[in-house]
Amino acid sequence: MNKSPETRAAEERIGKDLRALMHLPGLSGHEGRVRNAISAMLRDMGLSTRTDRLGNLTATIEGTRDAPSVMFITHMDQLGFVVRKIEKDGFVRVERLGGVPERALAAQPVLLCVGEGKDVAGIIANKSHHATTPEEKYKVLPYQDIYIDTGLGSAEAVRAAGVDIGTPVVYLPNVVELAGGRIAGTSIDDRAGCAVLLELARRFAKSAVPPTVHLVFSVQEEFNLRGAIPAVNALRPDIAIQIDLILATDTPDMAHRGEVTLGGGPAMALYSFHGRGTLNGTLPHPALVRLLEATAQKHGLPLQRSAHIGALTETSYVQLANEGVAVIDAGFPCRYTHSALEVCDIADLASLANLLEKATGAVDAGFSLDRDDYVS
Question: Quick one: three-class SS letters along the chain?
């Protein structure tokens, strides 16, 4: 397919930002390096930023007319571990932070985040195959039983390197270029969302839209999904749109879960529910469902639909703030989520940016959030 110069340029910008952000570690509660990088990018666009006490980074672009205000949210943090014990022989035990899939951990390289230029590389140990018993062959170790080998041979040496109880640990930052503009690696969830929001910031900074737009790069999403609450309470938006992954269902193991395909363009979630202990989820506001549908149809843009159990975003809690916020999850298809090698398609990210830019431009003074206006 022949792409316009504008599309190719957007994909290049988004891909460049995504790769840069994927190389930065940012465990929940330790997002500083990611936040500083994004803040610098926003300043280069002429946008001022502020950071609240929790660590959320916000930039606001005032609208041109009286219209419902729009907050975009995308999270900067990633899942991983924190050090809980250092064995006397130097092996490191960890606690899991976020939905880390234990079956994807054996032999993974990790990074113990001491400080920029001081980080310590390690690997999650995998028992030597030659000594593995038949009973162990198909067993997945619970995270409590794994240990990290840094090569340092004693607890004293590990601590001397700056590692201690509470040190954050993430998958070793990694970017793998795949065919067809697809990219694999660490923290695509949700550095891809950050890259899309940075692209929107560029566009909104050059050409303001009717509503006031708040760009929120949030923290601690992987920890408890509530990190954006201080931002929403301070900004009091009328609308909140979450930019995050949507589960791709085009692989053999996921085909029964839905119809979202990688490379098929952005998607919106019509229903999400955690279903595993967290009794929460999001049913999007009908005005925003109609907005995205109408925008896609008007501009000939793709828009996929998703309904799933097992994943949540911050809209689950943002929707309950203040007098209530109209919310929707708009995202990009993603494969192999929460593993060390997630996969997305750069073209989907650029298409998502186009959809959200044009949808925001349609939120004017006459845009209704009265649910009774959408009763069919």
Answer: CCCCHHHHHHHHHHHHHHHHHHCCCCECCCCHHHHHHHHHHHHHCCCCCEECCCCCEEEEECCCCCCCCEEEEEECCECEEEEEEECCCCCEEEEEECCCCHHHCCCCEEEECCCCCCCEEEEECCCCHHHCCCCCCCCCCCHHHCCEECCCCCHHHHHHCCCCCCCEEEECCCEEECHHHEEEECCHHHHHHHHHHHHHHHHHHHCCCCCCEEEEEECCHHHHCCCCHHHHHHHCCCEEEEEEEEECCCCCCCHHHCCCCCCCCCEEEEEEECCCCCCCEECCCHHHHHHHHHHHHHHCCCCEEEEEECCCCCHHHHCCCCCCCEEEEEEEEEECCCCCCEEEEHHHHHHHHHHHHHHHHCCCCCCCCCHHHHCC
